[in-house]
Amino acid sequence: MIITITLNPALDRTIRIDHPLSPRKLNRAIGSMVEPGGKGINVSRAIKALGGTSVALGFSAGSNGRMMKDALTSADIHHDFVDVPGETRINIQLIDTFGDHTEINEPGSKISDADYLRFLDRMDHYLQPENIFVITGSTPPQFSLDGYIKICKKIKKAGCRLIIDANGERLLEALKLEPDFVKPNIFELAEATGDETSTDPEVLVHSARKLLDMGARAVCVSMSQEGALFVSKDEKEALYVNSNPKIFDCGAVGTGDAMVGAIANSMQNALSFCELAKYTVATGRACARLAGTEMATLKRVFEVYETLQVYTV
Fold first, then answer.
1. pLDDT tens per residue, range 214-247
2. What is the C-alpha separation between 242 and 45, in angstroms, rounded?
3. What pLDDT is attached to residue 252?
4. 196 pLDDT exceeds 90?
5. Distance CA 176, CA 149 (A)
6. In the chain, what is the straight-line distance between the N-terminal and C-terminal CA atoms, in Å?
7. pLDDT exceeds 90 at position 100
8. What is the pLDDT of residue 246?
9. Which strands sit side by side in the sheet containing 31-37, from one edge to the other?
């Protein structure tokens, strides 16, 4: 079973306008859509679109939280949230006629110590060694690094596999716990290693292997339309995967989450390292063809899969 953790979930509202955004003027929408959001929930949505199943854990607050849970239920995505005071945040994505994205994300509600402990108790129901946990996304206001790492330690202590998509201190501290997979983008990788940002696979492979030395079992470095680089402690060669021709982002939001969902789904289905890499890039690039936070179906993923090229680095 795949368990996703979204500590700071949201309702994602996508608004479309048929002209360039005009600041300080009236901008009329031609359409809007509201979906359950937050990176972990997006991972669950991606897994569902790929034909897999997961359980989404996290915190839910107020009427927005009820709307979020109802939407997940309607989408046949299993969830088990801890209800807390306050209001689940709303994230707004504005897409104009050129496909440019403007995002406004609310901070979310503070989580009390008592509610945090209730969440740890809720996690206990899912700590079977065969389960795969995915923890990704922002944390609520004033949520401590120690609280985040305690969740990761609890998962690893139970013998579960752990996938982490994080940056900054959270990534650096989590690496010490030997997560099974981490998925930084090129900017997060540069921040973690102190190296220069690059899209050259020959350069990136050295930075990615530093994360292996720091504790990660495997690393996927996402490179937007340039594909992704994969390294693993269990594989001698690194893999660089990209589509030909390149697919440029129409819907930049959620493509990284879709890749994480594909990694989890691949691990659940015991795919080879090469197949995991191809499946992951195909999923991300298929989602890049879609506006907003829509997740690509397995049919769309296989259409991209056929265009992929794999190189050893």
1. 999 999 999 988 899 999 999 999 999 998 766 5
2. 23
3. 56
4. yes
5. 10
6. 32
7. no
8. 65
9. 31-37, 10-16, 89-95, 101-105
Which of 42, 45, 16, 20 lies closest to 29 in space, CA to CA?
Answer: 16
**C-alpha pair distances (Å), 112 with each of 59, 68, 105, 155, 223:** 11, 21, 21, 21, 37
- Sheet with strand 78-84: strands edge to edge: 78-84, 54-61, 2-6, 132-136, 161-165, 181-182, 218-222, 228-232, 239-243, 308-312
Calpha distance 49→258 (Å, rounded):
9
Task: Give the contacts of 90 (CB within 8 A, at least 6 positions apart).
Answer: 10, 11, 12, 13, 64, 106
List, in sequence order, the alpha helices (H) in 214-294. 255-268, 273-288
Residue type, 46: A
Structure tokens at 246: 């390149």
pLDDT score for 149: 97
Q: The pTM is what?
A: 0.93
Residue with tokens 């199943």, as numbered in its chain: 53
Query: Residue 284 in 3-state DSSP?
Result: helix
Residue 197: helix, strand or coil by DSSP?
coil
CA distance 17 to 97: 6
What's the distance, CA 242 to chain centroid?
Answer: 19
Mind listing the domains of the chain with CATH numbers? 2-6+39-56+107-312 (3.40.1190.20)
